[in-house]
Specification:
By secondary structure, the chain is an alpha/beta fold. It has 2 domains: about 1-30; about 50-185, Glutaredoxin (3-Layer(aba) Sandwich), CATH 3.40.30. The protein is about 35% helix and about 20% strand. It has a 7-stranded mixed beta sheet. A hairpin with a 5-residue loop joins strand 1 and strand 2 (about 65). The chain is globular. Mean pLDDT is about 80; it is low at about 10-30 and about 30-45.
Length: about 180
């Protein structure tokens, strides 16, 4: 005959199950894999169109409110990088994104759109990683994310100079793929 579990043991098991579930959900919501999920080819076009979003965001460097759709008519392709201050994967790749933006500023514009926290933490994130070549924006409502089909972070969408999606990565983006798509424009 099996002995009945002590109440303390049952409580510990229940707590462990809840903690495990929460950790899995956090990992899933934070781009737990850094693999590329989707890349739209130039022939297929893409899904997102910058001019379709009515969202505005706060420019973390200037304090100005800017329309996201304003990036639709650019003289260079635009890579939008979606991040949150608390995401460990976003924190891990932020310096690489800044370096990529600096190294390729002659051929494309990199814009970071953050959400999911408060503006003080967003500014601290931008400062911690010396984000000078990435134009860092803050969309507390996450409307831009929804309008552009972004559900996880980090993510990135590459737009051509007319604001049409030509590539998308959910998890970390592949710099070589971005540059290959830009070169084909």
């Amino acid at each position: 005959m099996a002995r009945p579990e002590r109440p303390a043991t049952a409580a510990v098991r229940a707590l462990a199950a809840v903690c495990g579930t929460v950790l899995c959900l956090v990992a899933a919501a934070c781009g737990a894999t850094s693999s590329r999920v989707a890349t739209a080819s130039l022939a297929q076009g893409g899904g997102a169109v910058l001019s379709s979003t009515k969202a505005n965001a706060l420019d973390l460097a200037t304090g100005a409110t800017v329309p996201i759709a304003g990036f639709a008519s650019s003289t260079k392709p635009v890579l939008m990088w979606f991040w949150t201050p608390w995401c460990p994967y976003c924190n891990q790749e932020a310096s690489d994104v800044e370096r990529f933006a600096r190294d390729h500023r002659a051929t494309l514009v990199v814009v970071g759109i953050g959400t999911g926290d408060d503006v003080a933490n967003a500014k601290a994130f931008s400062t911690r990683y010396a984000m000078h070549d990435v134009r860092m924006l803050w969309d507390p409502s996450a409307v831009s994310w929804g309008d552009l089909g972004v559900a996880t972070q980090p993510s990135a969408i590459l737009f051509d100079t007319t604001g049409h999606q030509i590539g998308a990565w959910f998890g970390g983006f592949d710099p070589k793929e971005v540059l290959d798509l830009v070169a084909r424009l």
